[in-house]
From TrEMBL:
Pfam families: Aldo_ket_red (PF00248). It is an enzyme of class 1 (oxidoreductase). This is General stress protein 69. One of its GO terms (molecular function) is oxidoreductase activity. InterPro entries: AKR_Detox_Biosynth, NAD(P)_OxRdtase_dom_sf, NADP_OxRdtase_dom. Its EC number is 1.1.1.-. Keywords: Oxidoreductase. It comes from the Bacteria. The gene is yhdN_4. Residues 15-313 form the NADP-dependent oxidoreductase domain. GO terms for cellular component: cytosol. Signal peptide: none annotated.
Length: 317
């Protein structure tokens, strides 16, 4: 499989990342192992998680996803087959959040322990911490890279201004720089990334691994009415897309799917993969059937006419 480079990190990945947010939430440990086995067996290698996954689930405390992945590493000895990405910064409890140097040093040890590994390939700031200077955060990451605990760093949910400030400081001080950005980006959420972040990532050779690639499942086409929102745990998250633009996008996806003997979800992922600035979209699966669908999406090459149709349908007036 043809791989893509994550910025200048030296990391190379297949063009699809498995989103580990479902582990310990909508997927139990046994099913998680099956999905990870199948993902790697199909030639893919980028697994993305975060320390706080899945703290939002009643009874969970955060760390559930990393713990499951760590158990899978130990049971299967497949650590070297995976480019492991995790994140730090979201709240894990009282006084357990942010990007200060002391907290990053504590959080990375907790993540390494849960993941049962001695290194994190891509360690990402989960969101900007306005209370901590970028200098402090980058110096902390620099120490972790020196220690061999982290190979490369990335940023998630950063504004273009804050990302540019971080890159400027790294260059001026000779510190490791963010090699990757993880933004929300899909056919329904285009403006936030395309207006300011995409030009910056292109200019600075920053890899991009967008999340919510299917807009919380909306782009699969399974949500057409408010009654459909009851179909899954994520249903309420797509209510905002049930408007004229949303239906226009779904119609375009279905048309392209019919022309390519595919389906809307595959087409939506293929549209992201075809975007020159995108390295590997992140998508989750709760069943082998869903995973097979994602894998098929990486084999779907959209022609210029299909991409134009989708671009026009999803354009913001």
């Amino acid at each position: 499989m043809k791989t893509r480079k994550i910025g200048g990190s030296g990391l190379e990945v297949a063009p699809l990342a498995f989103g580990g947010n479902v582990f310990g939430w909508t997927v139990d440990e046994k099913q998680s192992f099956k999905l990870l086995d199948a993902f790697v067996a199909a030639g893919f290698n980028l697994v993305d998680t975060a320390d706080m996954y899945s703290r939002w689930v009643p009874g969970n405390h955060g760390g559930e996803s990393e713990t499951i992945i760590g158990k899978w590493f130990k049971q299967t000895d497949k650590r070297d087959k995976v480019v492991l990405a995790t994140k730090v910064g979201m709240e894990m409890g009282p006084d357990k959040k942010g990007l200060s140097k002391p907290y990053i040093f504590k959080a990375v040890e907790d993540s390494l322990k849960r993941l049962q590994t001695d290194r994190i390939d891509l360690y990402q700031s989960h969101k900007d911490d306005p209370d901590t200077p970028v200098e402090e955060t980058l110096e902390a990451f620099g120490e972790l890279i020196k220690q061999g605990k982290v190979r490369a760093i990335g940023a998630s949910n950063y504004s273009a201004a804050r990302l540019a400030e971080s890159l400027k400081f790294s260059k001026a001080e000779g510190l490791p720089a963010y090699q990757c950005l993880q933004p929300q980006y899909n056919l329904m959420e285009r403006a936030g990334y395309e207006h300011d972040l995409e030009p910056l990532c292109d200019r600075e050779n920053i890899g991009v691994i967008p999340y919510y690639s299917l807009a919380s499942g909306f782009l699969s086409g399974k949500y057409r009415t408010e009654d459909d929102l009851k179909k899954s745990a994520r249903g309420q998250g797509v209510k905002k897309y049930l408007d004229a633009r949303g239906f226009r996008v779904l119609d375009a996806l279905e048309a392209v799917a019919a022309e390519t003997a595919s389906n809307p979800a595959r087409v939506a992922i293929a549209w992201l993969i075809a975007r020159p600035s995108v390295t590997a979209p992140i998508a989750s699966a709760t069943s082998i059937e869903q995973l097979d669908d994602l894998i098929e999406a990486t084999r779907l090459e959209l022609d210029d006419a299909a991409i134009k149709r989708l671009n026009e349908a999803s354009a913001i007036a």
